[in-house]
Amino acid sequence: MVLGRSEHGNFPVEPVTLKILVAGGFGVGKTTLVGAISEIRPLRTEEQLTEAGRPVDDTSGVEAKNTTTVAMDFGRITLREDLVLYLFGTPGQERFWFMWDELSEGALGAVVLADTRRLEDSFAAVDYFERRSIPFLVAVNCFDGAARYPSDSVRLALDLDPGVPVLLCDARDRESAKDVLIDLIEHAMRYTADHRQPVRS
User: Which residue, 177, 119, 172, 165, is CA-closest to 144?
Assistant: First the structure.
């Protein structure tokens, strides 16, 4: 059978579209990951950081960062002829978290990007998806100069359930980001199957 065709081979099949969130703390690489993998020019809603925002915008560890996402990043990638992913990067700062509920509506799952230099910034995203039973994985963005830790150490530090995958990635690299998304889809499918309610006769 040829992907993207009906069983009779005459009519194109509409691709399955899946919604994926890319979440995590401020400056962890969400915009970078969406931009690295998107096959279209990504939609970005970045604004310059200002002096007025310094009291509420913690830039510790990312002092060189001078912009922030205020609504979302959006990108698209076609994994196969019959499978398209829509990527939504969430804003990382607490004052924009009110948008997460709307962005997560209908999402298959989420990638929580983490930075080992500011691992505590991942707690909010992990807690958000755990509370809402949205399948997610943690992808540690391997920044230049950042310490590397085994996946089990990251899992312990974030107090993750054993079933939550922890991966290392480079958000700048398209193939690395693609591998993360494929792993997320596989995890989300297993999670959904495991948590499906039995049908009562």
Answer: 172
How far apart, in whole angstroms, are the C-alpha atoms of residue 91 and residue 31?
A: 9
Amino acid at 8: H
Nearest to 169 by CA among 130, 87, 109, 112: 112
State the number of CA atoms in the 13 A half-sphere of 195 facing the CB. 11
Q: Which pair of structure tokens corresponds to residue 151?
A: 């996946």
Whole-angstrom CA distances from 42 to 75, 89, 124, 157, 190 are 5, 10, 25, 33, 29
Question: CA triplet 21, 173, 141: central angle to 5 degrees?
Answer: 60
The per-residue pLDDT for range 122-143, each reduced to its tens digit, is 999 999 999 999 999 999 999 8
59 part of a folded domain: no
Q: What is the tens place of the pLDDT at every residue in 141-181?
A: 998 888 889 999 999 999 999 999 999 999 999 999 999 99
Residue 39 is part of which domain span? 16-43+69-195
Q: Which two tokens stand for residue 150?
A: 């085994």
- Residue-level pLDDT at 189: 95
Residue 161 within a domain: yes
For the chain, give the number of residues: 201
